[in-house]
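Page 47, continued from p. 46.
Same chain as before, 253 aa.
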Amino acid sequence: MHISLSLQAGLWGLLAGGALVIGAAFAWFVHVPQRLIAGITAFGAGVLISALAFELMDEAYQRGGFASTAAGFLGGAIIYTAANWVLAHHGARHRKRSQGQQPSEQEDPGSGMAIAIGALLDGIPESIVIGLSLLAGGAVSFVAVIAIFLSNIPEGLSSAAGMKKAGRSATYVFGVWTAIAVISGVAAWAGCAIFSGFSAGIVAATTATAAGAILSMLADTMIPEAFEHAHDAAGLITVAGFLASFALSKLGG
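Result:
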């Protein structure tokens, strides 16, 4: 049975997004030491940074040249930063934090919705990248899928731990991450289906835009959590994640 490229993209996006639910389940049902959460987060950050450098940015540059890549990269960072600033002022500033930084709904009414939207904002660029990767050669970038899957586990783990400490219900926590996993699949499908008819320059700029948004997300949310609790080991663990993703990119190539 032949499966269209866009449907393949959607299924890969759903798989990568499902790692958020896996991470959330660990946080909810298993006591995970804070330092271990931070270490896993640091590793995931390193994985994504490597994928950005050697998969997304390089692919964007090869397809569209420096101008499209640079414009998209900066644009993605600006868009993410602006949206994140708005959400941060509505209670979503600490959505990836695993300790007691997240406000409860009683402390900050509306923060639950802001945190959910913020988590969605973090996940969409990664999923679009999966869809765009199929446009390059008709096959998904397994390195990108693996990198996003590996980074999504600590994202779901850390954020769900913080949600639990803030007193949010299991229905809220698993509802948020399940919905985002499904939307991740839709976003990956859209990245392939919508952009299949666009020029190489537009695809390159879109890929770079997603890369800029992802790097901004790492700097704003995941890295602070990792370095606050993993302390001196955070840098080494981040490098290990970077190296693992780099090795995958070379072995996969």
